[in-house]
Amino acid sequence: MLAIRTPRLFDGERFSTDGSTVLTDAGRIVGVEPGFRTLGDDWQVLEFDDATVLPGLIDSHVHLAADSGFGALDRIAGFTDDEMDAVITDGLRRQLANGVTTVRDLGDRRFGVLQRRDRQRAGAATEPEPTILAAGPPLTSPGGHCAYMGGEVRGVPAMTDAVRERIDRGVDVVKIMGSGGMATTGTDVLQPQFSLEELSAAADLAHRAGIPVSVHAHALAAVEQALDVGVECIEHCSCLTQRGPLLSDELLDRLASGGVFVGAALGMPPVAMMMQYAPPNMLALMEKTGMTPEKVIDMRMALMGRMYRAGVKLVTGNDSGIAPFLAHGLLRGSAETMVAFGAPIADAVAASTSAAAQACAVADRKGFLRKGFDADVIVVAGDLQADIGALADVRAVVLGGVRVR
After folding, report:
1. What value, to the nearest 5°, has the Cα angle with vertex 131 and ends 130 and 137?
2. pLDDT tens per residue, the chain (405 residues)?
3. How far apart are the C-alpha atoms of 243 and 354, rounded to whole Å?
4. Of 99, 127, 16, residue with least CA distance to 378
5. Please, how many CA atoms are within 13 Å of residue 260, restricted to the half-sphere of its CB?
6. Helices (H), 209-270
7. Of 216, 221, 239, 88, whose CA–CA distance to 147 is shortest?
8. Cα distance between residue 135 and residue 206, in whole Å
9. How far is CA 404 from the centre of its chain?
10. What is the CATH number of domain 2-55+368-404?
11. Domain limits, the chain
12. Contacts within 8 Å (CB) and 24+ apart, 157-162
């Protein structure tokens, strides 16, 4: 039995500064109590004088097969199975060391991450690692975004066959590349990759099996398609057109009232890095629209800030693994960006805990400090309510009620 005592607590929704004790036993939270009552000798106590305790972070958008370097997605296709397994292990270690206790993988190569998830669920993990939720290879058009991951489909019959395979394999979410991607040369980020009929067939089949759907959508038309077929999550939601981002009041209202989660992937690269390492599609888009890197960042911040103020449900899934500034373990960068465009710290941290748990369909057991929930708990130094930067100083990670060294 493990007890964690800190002067400050974030329970997944709100802060408390009255002193708290989180009690865990057999992998579960068995109590969250105010103050520091005396405990019996059978309790192991972790006590921190100047810190905040909170639920383990949830990164709702990772690529465990990507190695966090520049051009990471391009290297995935060339990995041997052993090399990919090593990359997955490194990514999981980085995530856990930075307080991320659950990851949702949205870009797997030939079901390698799903197989790793299955080993984990069978109790065969060789070391502590974040809980893996997995989509398998994302469904994409022939030659489309991330086609090398093995999810190419065209037409309703092929789409439904691919979704059935994922249902049979027990995926946690179906991921669809609704538009082209910045990192895949030759794809069009301004156009949908699938017809509405193809998307609808996939979403209907997944939903009948009780599996949520997440759609990667840079193009405005792809965002509209995703809403039309009733998906649970939209990744990026960039609303791009030939003239740049275009988010009408009507579409904003649809996003807010429809209850869809927007995985913001908010980590922002330094301007110099954008020019030196931007993928070809991003460079082409900037040239086509006449935007500078500074303008791209300003417009992205304005778009996300507008969504937040309208009540769109943002989560801070980070697209982790695809670049150094989006390396595994840097989920805090997205939370910091939310604060930068005006969100209170409580909302930014909720976007990485309770809201992310809801987006990933695990809010019945993760994302909150509540009795009966998984004992995935972290402690960060200082006063998180006053400084979102405290997420960078993780003092303790408790996974399933056991402190990770």
Report:
1. 105
2. 999 999 999 999 999 999 999 999 999 999 999 999 889 989 999 999 999 999 999 999 999 999 999 889 989 999 999 999 999 999 999 999 999 999 999 999 999 999 999 999 999 999 999 999 999 999 999 999 999 999 999 999 999 999 999 999 999 999 999 999 988 888 999 999 999 999 999 999 999 999 999 999 999 999 999 999 999 999 999 999 988 899 999 999 999 999 999 996 766 666 666 656 677 777 777 777 777 777 778 888 999 999 999 999 999 999 999 989 899 999 999 999 999 999 999 999 999 999 999 999 999 999 999 999 999 999 999 999 999 999 999 999 999 999 998
3. 36
4. 99
5. 29
6. 220-229, 249-257
7. 216
8. 12
9. 22
10. 2.30.40.10
11. 2-55+368-404, 57-359
12. 159/194, 159/198, 159/201, 159/202, 160/201, 160/202, 160/205, 162/202
Q: Which two tokens stand for residue 85?
A: 């397994």
CA distances from 140 to 54, 72, 110, 171, 175 (A): 37, 19, 13, 17, 9
Find the helix packing angle between 220-229 and 249-257, rounded to 10°.
40
What is the rounded distance in angstroms from the CA atom of residue 405 to the CA atom of residue 397?
A: 8
123-141 exposure pattern, b = at least 16 Cβ within 10 A, e = fewer: eeeeebbbbbbbbbbbbbb
How far is Cα 82 from Cα 148, in angstroms, rounded to an integer? 18
Class of 57-359 per CATH? Answer: alpha beta
Q: By the 8 A CB rule, do 159 and 229 touch? A: no
Residues 6+ apart with CB under 8 A from 55: 10, 11, 12, 101, 353, 354, 366, 367, 368, 369, 373, 376, 377, 378
CA nearest to 326, candidates 272, 268, 277: 268
Contact 346, 14 (CB under 8 A): yes
Neighbours of 241 (CB within 10 A): 13
Q: Which two tokens stand for residue 138?
A: 């994302």
Q: Which run of H or of E encompasses 282? A: helix 280-289
Strand locations in 303-344 (E): 313-315
Q: What is the C-alpha separation between 401 and 25, in angstroms, rounded?
A: 6
